[in-house]
Prior knowledge:
This protein has 4 helices and 12 strands; from the N terminus they run ββαβββαβααββββββ. By secondary structure, it is mainly β. The strands form 2 sheets. The chain has a 6-stranded antiparallel beta barrel. It has a 6-stranded mixed β-sheet with strand order 10-9-8-7-12-11, with no helix packed on it.
Amino acid sequence: MKNNFISAGKILNFHGVRGEAKLGYSKNREDFLSRLNVVYIQDGSEYKPLEIENLRFTPKCAIIKFKGIDSLNDILEYKGKLLFVPEDFAREFLDEDEFLIDELVGLDVYDGDKHVGSVVGVSNNGASDLLSVKTLTKNICLVPFVKAIVLSVDIKSRRIQINNIEGLLQ
């Protein structure tokens, strides 16, 4: 069985001259990242493992060091690259009401029985995750992923039920 990989972060830049890199990642994922021993870089159609030697967090990013990458020249080739983890591994860290972005994109959005659009992306504004919903009039509206608005998510039936409060979807 072929394992699917999902993105866990992105190498933003080098950090110093000893092969460390600045790692960008989704908010509140420090616990998940701290448990990683290996991440993968996509090389064509293959995923190449990189063993994590050290990981620490700063207010704006994480600083990551890989085994065998010990100089500025070694890390520079990875600048701008996404780091991946096996999807099954990532799922182990999801709470009951958490979903992978890939699962949400493409789902139909309903207000009651009325189809109002579909999810085209997911982002975060610091306070909450936001669903980018393309409405039937082709507008893109940001819907806060909070219990008061997103009433239910059913991955199997590819459906998200929302409480379309006034002014939410234009």
